[in-house]
Amino acid sequence: MAVTSLETLDLDPAFALHRGGKLETRSTVPVRDADDLSLAYTPGVARVCTAIAESPELVNDYTWVSNVVAVVSDGTAVLGLGDIGPAAAMPVMEGKALLFKQFAGVDSVPICLDCTDVDELVETVVRLAPSFGGINLEDISAPRCFEVEARLRERLDIPVFHDDQHGTAIVTLAALKNAARLTGRSLADLRAVVAGAGASGVAVTRILLEAGIGDIAVSDSKGILHSGREGMNGFKEALARDTNQAGFTGSTEQALAGADVFIGLSGATVSEEAIASMAPDAIVFALSNPEPEIHPSAARKHAAVVATGRSDFPNQINNVLAFPGVFRGALDVRARQITENMKVAAANALAAVVGDELSADYVIPSPFDVRVAPAVSEAVAAQARLDGVARR
Predict the structure, then answer these.
(1) Topology adopted by domain 56-158
(2) What are the b/e assignments for 79-89, b being 16+ CB within 10 Å?
(3) Residue 321 and residue 327: Cα distance in Å, rounded?
(4) DSSP assignment of 164-199
(5) Which CATH fold would you assign to the domain 166-308?
(6) Percent of residues, the chain, with pLDDT higher than 90
(7) Equal fold, 56-158 vs 166-308
(8) Could you tell me the residue ranges of all domains in the chain?
(9) Is the whole-model pTM more than 0.90?
(10) Which residues lie closer than 8 Å to 257 by C-beta, 6 or more apart?
(11) Which of 60, 221, 230, 304 is close enough to 281 for a disulfide, judged by CB 3.0 to 4.6 Å?
(12) pLDDT band (50, 70, 90) for residue 3
């Protein structure tokens, strides 16, 4: 885009809203006079520093560390924009921090790193980690994102959560549980097809397996993942071993014939004919943005429940339903990590918010439902204690 002037850009309301950034810091204690200054800074601060040096765990009680998350990206997989680099990723990371605060009262700091090497990313985050109570990884391209998260989880004793994977997975599971309930089925009754074997596709598949889905097949641009298919990376090979009990080897659309569930996370398109070939009371989650794999109006002709990733259609699968509450709960109990059970507990709590209001156009609550973050955070905190990863 050719930039003529800031004034011209500011005619666009999106630019006007972002002018100067979306975040600021503010003090939580007054500094009105010399006495306040002597407590907030020198010499009073020295007593606090000395106590933390002697008992490092006190950092969680006498600094903001236990309530602050680092939102970390390298800008390689930003929303639907792709690899746009760290500077261009900052508006998204600021937005993420804004949502943390808005929906769960969690403070966070957006950090965009000018490196893409896995070793460098991991080492940089490890060195930053003492300043934070949790790490939210964001918009890091697959398959590097899997290794970055796994290595950070091994090295750090605070929650590490790649939202593109697990936020999407939690909300998808919640919506699917309610869609199954609406149509008189359980997850175990369902055969699903997931289009997309990137970060979100892998995580959605894994959480559905953990939750007891009947069968699930995953596809990439070359078709269904299956054992013996050549050219797959290690993550896809592992997924092929754990999925596709029916043994499909063809295309996504071929696997959809008779399937109960379609979950689109690929950016590709799916024909109306393929959706029509699905089983009765089909469930279609066309989650690619900004263009779903199939338009909801076409999908609704053949499916009992349709969800998208967009706010202008019913049943929006939106990560903001998950990550604020997940971190709120994990931080409240000072969890060492976010376990698989904690993610499933978050999904169950999110699904339960819908309750008796369940309908074809309401299988997942609105991000603005004030019940969401408290329900998710309470479930995550309780599960952390059950899993033995809570420190309080």
Answers:
(1) Rossmann fold (3.40.50)
(2) eeeeeeebeeb
(3) 12
(4) HHHHHHHHHHHHHHHHHHHTT--GGG-EEEEE--SH
(5) Rossmann fold (3.40.50)
(6) 94
(7) yes
(8) 56-158, 166-308
(9) yes
(10) 274, 277, 278
(11) 304
(12) low
